[in-house]
Amino acid sequence: MALTSRSVEELDEVARECERAGSPATYVAPCDLSDGAAVERLAQDLVSTFGGVEVLVNNAGILVNGNPLEGDPDEWEHMMDVIVNAPMRLTRRLAPKMAERMSGFVINIGSIAGTEAMSGAAAAYAAAKAGLRGWSRSAYLTLRHKNVKCVLINPGFVNTDMVTSRPALVGQLIPERMIQPSDIADAVSFVLNSSPGCVPEEMNLRLGLSAFK
């Protein structure tokens, strides 16, 4: 298992959690996914070290002020690099080995925001996730002929700091009513355990009870 993030400390913490859960070995590869050259080096490192990967989970995310009238275009570009361009680069570099083996998974973590129009500060985030959605669905059409499953998982509000720390949402959400990170992990597990003839191309994880107070 290979893990990547900007924070070495967080990577080491997750690696220890994985090992406690039974992962035989965890490879830590720090990388700033907004840096295209760094992403290319990461992909090459994974190919050189492992000969490729069997499962690629594109899960990195960032949320900035995306108000069309007030947002910072440089921040939007940074967000697009993380949410859209990094998965595109990693898929381009790692999926060919899967195609050669006629086996593999590319799992993209999108958002319900990418399936709907959003106003105000969420507009650019919705645009970025919509871009990932378009890429994922197009990659599915290409990779399915090589027995590589490309799947998009779209969660709604997830109980993570990225959501709960937003100024507009602080104190307004009920954490136990939000989608939990474990729910997304369960969705990934479902994909990995699906039968060879089944491709859950897109999965929407919506809130049950309202998460708002």
Automatic annotation (TrEMBL):
Transmembrane segments: none
Protein family (similarity comment): Belongs to the short-chain dehydrogenases/reductases (SDR) family.
CDD domains: SDR_c (cd05233)
Enzyme class: oxidoreductase
GO molecular function: 3-oxoacyl-[acyl-carrier-protein] reductase (NADPH) activity
Family annotation (InterPro entries): NAD(P)-bd_dom_sf, SDR, SDR_fam
Pathway: Lipid metabolism; fatty acid biosynthesis
Protein name per Swiss-Prot or TrEMBL: 3-oxoacyl-[acyl-carrier-protein] reductase
EC number from the UniProt entry: 1.1.1.100
Recorded superkingdom: Eukaryota
Catalytic activity: a (3R)-hydroxyacyl-[ACP] + NADP(+) = a 3-oxoacyl-[ACP] + NADPH + H(+)
